[in-house]
Specification:
Blueprint lengths: L20 E2 L7 H15 L7 H20 L1 E2 L11 H20 L2 H37 L1
Antiparallel strand pairs: 1-2
Helix pairs in contact: 1-2, 3-4
Protein name: Ycf1
Length: 145
């Protein structure tokens, strides 16, 4: 594609796909392996009369559902830092999108945008940390008198 055919801001169309994190260490237990295998065997037995897309969707859905039931989902740890806020989260998401855009299109323009976004996130985090520290210092000074 030429430069003129590309959208002005390719990051607008990107969507971050979040998949659950499974507790794969549970597969070390033999009974869990057997349970998982039995569930999959039951689901994949009868594929007669199904289209290729239906078979694919059946396999995909079965893998997700049976994995979740057999080994469970690992909770994603969220940041509980005092200085963390929605603005930082949004800024990090935008930085990720710009990084992905740069990886896919590999142009200098997007490399510079990626670096600028990275610097913006660092600056924002530094500012929020300093603000949080200042607030806590003021609270301590108020308590001390």
């Amino acid at each position: 594609r030429t430069e003129t055919n590309q959208p002005k801001n390719p990051t607008e169309n990107l969507q971050v796909i979040e998949e659950p994190r499974y507790k794969f260490e549970s597969f070390r237990i033999e009974s869990t392996q057997n349970l998982y295998q039995r569930r999959l065997d039951e689901k994949f037995m009868d594929t007669e009369g199904l289209t290729l897309n239906e078979i694919y969707n059946n396999i995909k859905d079965s893998l997700k559902k049976d994995t979740q039931e057999a080994i469970g989902i690992q909770e994603v740890k969220r940041s509980n830092k005092i200085w963390w806020n929605e603005e930082i989260s949004d800024s990090i998401d935008m930085k990720k999108k710009k990084y992905i855009t740069w990886l896919h299109l590999n142009r200098d323009k997007f490399l510079h945008e990626n670096k600028a976004a990275k610097n913006e996130v660092r600056s924002l985090i530094k500012t929020e940390k300093n603000n949080s520290l200042d607030q806590h210092c003021q609270q301590i000074e108020t308590l001390i008198g």
